Amino acid sequence: MTSLAGKHILLGISGGIAAYKCAELTRRLSERGAEVRVVMTTAAKEFITPLTMQAVSGHPVADSLLDPAAEASMGHIELAKWADIVLLAPATADLIARIAAGMGNDLLSTLVLATDSPIAVSPAMNQQMYMNQATQENIATLKRRGLHIWGPAAGQQACGDVGMGRMLEPMDLVHLCERFFQADLHEQKPLEGTSLLITAGPTREAIDPVRYISNHSSGKMGFSIAEAAAQLGAKVTLVSGPVSLATPENVERINVESAEQMHSAVMKHAPSHAIFIACAAVADFKPNQISEQKLKKTADEDGMTIQMIKNPDIVASVAAMTEQRPFTIGFAAETQEVEKYARDKLERKNLDMICANDVSVQGQGFNSDNNALHLYWKNGDKALPLAAKSELGKAIMLEVVARLETIRCAN
Ligand code: PMT
């Protein structure tokens, strides 16, 4: 799938004919799991209506620096901080000039000044205007400052001219965004020097030498997180229940079968790890007794009763550590009232974050290649819409990096 899952894209539209392509662009970005918020200049509204952009993005469009209602919901500074990337498309010669000059004379140019997120500029204008020395110098200035310049393309223009100046097609911009976030992930090593312990897969609770109680966890979700954490530079220890997955590169794996064994392995290694993620589907109960011999059917009994006792709660045990406690993240597999039950587990188990999934929805959750998650922590939350588990692994780890950074800054 895509590296756009859960990404915040601030789309800045200025007044060019290519603005009409922004509805399509927004839909394609959203389909891939990105959250898009739109800011329009006054001139942009002559080419596409804010109502259209509100409908396709699912959020009200911001268009004024001095709108008290908009400032009360998500103010312009908040919006500037919210963005993972600011995409200016179409970026007219006028917008490019104002940004190059460092002006803040409308909402969009002010946001560009106020953000420390990466900015991508997709120029769109008449070919003569594009070739003008002033425009070329302004673009060179933006490049020198580290802004990404995506396009323009050459071809027939709305005014009838032929030449450089067409905005890239929506799908080209989508692919550039995807590539940007992939490169971003692989180039950075924000977890260098950090260690992460993670559980994955099911547990097996033996009944007798040949039978056990287990569940449908494939381990894919946990292994994807382990892989992403290793790619981000972490030293990763993966405690895995019985699954048939290959160990991700640069990950140390400890195989276990039962919840008891998983508990022992985790408690042994937790004090030497900075982060713990409990992704395993651990059996809450196990048979009170494991029969030494294979249980036999008898002719006079139509049923059998197995007495179950509680397993240790692994994630709660780690979260209760009083010394060398890792930053502790749990999962919540729910079939109803997902937020309520997830937040309850977050609090009851004393976790720093919880990743909730609705495992009643077809095509996600247990033993699927895809999943949709909602992350909750004490003062916030983030939706990670349906995506490949490999993408979600990266998205979760990037959010963990962000949470740790926020905590570090607050201390
Ligand atoms: O493995 P896949 O096929 O890829 O599927 C992924 C998944 C659906 C298994 C995964 O996304 C997921 O939801 N994992 C948690 C499953 C679970 O057991 O959820 P829970 O709500 O019952 O448990 C809450 C938390 O407590 C979990 O972090 C769990 O690991 C932990 N727990 C539960 C019981 C126990 N005895 N010890 C624990 O640590």
UniProtKB/TrEMBL annotation:
Task: Tell me the SUPFAM superfamilies matching this sequence.
Answer: CoaB-like, Homo-oligomeric flavin-containing Cys decarboxylases, HFCD
In short, the EC number is 4.1.1.36, 6.3.2.5
- Gene3D superfamilies hit by this protein: CoaB-like, Flavin prenyltransferase-like
- Start and end residues of each DNA/pantothenate metabolism flavoprotein C-terminal domain: 191-401
What cofactor does this one take?
Mg(2+); FMN
Keyword field: Decarboxylase, Flavoprotein, FMN, Ligase, Lyase, Magnesium, Metal-binding, Multifunctional enzyme
Region (Phosphopantothenoylcysteine decarboxylase), start-end ranges: 1-195
- Pathway it belongs to? Cofactor biosynthesis; coenzyme A biosynthesis; CoA from (R)-pantothenate: step 2/5; Cofactor biosynthesis; coenzyme A biosynthesis; CoA from (R)-pantothenate: step 3/5
What are the record's GO terms for cellular component? Answer: phosphopantothenoylcysteine decarboxylase complex
> What's one GO BP annotation on this UniProt entry?
pantothenate catabolic process
Q: Where is the Flavoprotein domain positioned along the sequence?
A: 7-177
Q: How is the cofactor bound, in the record's words?
A: Binds 1 FMN per subunit.
Residue ranges for the region (Phosphopantothenate--cysteine ligase) are 196-411
Keyword GTP-binding in record: no
Q: Which residues bind CTP?
A: 284, 294, 312-315, 331, 345, 349
Gene Ontology MF: a single term: FMN binding
Q: Which family does it belong to?
A: In the N-terminal section; belongs to the HFCD (homo-oligomeric flavin containing Cys decarboxylase) superfamily. In the C-terminal section; belongs to the PPC synthetase family.
Supply the HAMAP family for this chain. Answer: CoaBC (MF_02225)
State what this protein does.
Catalyzes two sequential steps in the biosynthesis of coenzyme A. In the first step cysteine is conjugated to 4'-phosphopantothenate to form 4-phosphopantothenoylcysteine. In the second step the latter compound is decarboxylated to form 4'-phosphopantotheine. Catalyzes two steps in the biosynthesis of coenzyme A. In the first step cysteine is conjugated to 4'-phosphopantothenate to form 4-phosphopantothenoylcysteine, in the latter compound is decarboxylated to form 4'-phosphopantotheine.
The record, for NCBIfam families, names: coaBC_dfp (TIGR00521)
For this entry, the protein name equals Coenzyme A biosynthesis bifunctional protein CoaBC
| Native source species | Aliivibrio wodanis
